[in-house]
């Protein structure tokens, strides 16, 4: 990234007393301030969430030019008769769900949710608002509604969404050997993230600790992933799956946002960048950039 443009990967945060301060919403966004509304390839229709606070947006896949145009209204059952409603904040893991929605070609409504803070104007929908806690009692983002179906937990949302669009082939066939591998590396991603957070927090390592926790230690988890991807283009099988998007975002976070992984790793960085070059990634980051500007994030 061009540091002169203010989009350096380290421009939006710093370590304070050993902890990383949250950076702004522009972490993975292109170094541009052009808004989606002025881009003929990406248009939004917006309406007020509340008269005095945030905005919602309806994102329709039909507004985008794509090399593989598909219908964006893939409703699989009666529970899917309503559009997807996506609760997010540009500073949250909702960035990844936005990417998944774009890769799937979904039509969805976005409900911005502010983080609870004394400085947030009264009446703003926040992660501690009763309205949002009815969606996710944990008060965490992102969340997704599809009719009467409510989903929380980022990876669960992404995998479920991928299964709603089988023509995209973002999950291996049920019962296949690749499906077993898919489950393996889906669960491993959680272990890897815990191991990375240990490194971020500078948690002392010991043999007793390594034996007592499922992910062992940072070096073992990191080297396991690296060895798996050394001669592979995809995480599972021979085509893109939702896990590739998840790992790409995870690796981007910890090479750019909280740089505890080597930014020049010859295996993991090319793997990450391959998927961040997808058109769906650029669309998702641009849409989040617009939302961040609307929210003042």
UniProtKB/TrEMBL annotation:
Q: Which InterPro entries match?
A: Glutathione-S-Trfase_C-like, Glutathione-S-Trfase_C_sf, Glutathione_S-Trfase, Glutathione_S-Trfase_N, GST_C, Thioredoxin-like_sf
Does Transferase count among this protein's keywords? Answer: yes
Q: Which UniProt keywords apply?
A: Transferase
Tell me what this protein is called. Answer: Glutathione S-transferase family protein
Q: Start and end of every GST C-terminal domain?
A: 175-297
- Give the superkingdom in one word: Bacteria
Recorded GO molecular functions are: transferase activity
Task: Please list the residue ranges annotated as the GST N-terminal domain.
Answer: 81-169
The answer, when asked if Transferase is one of the entry's keywords, is yes
| Biological source species | Lautropia dentalis
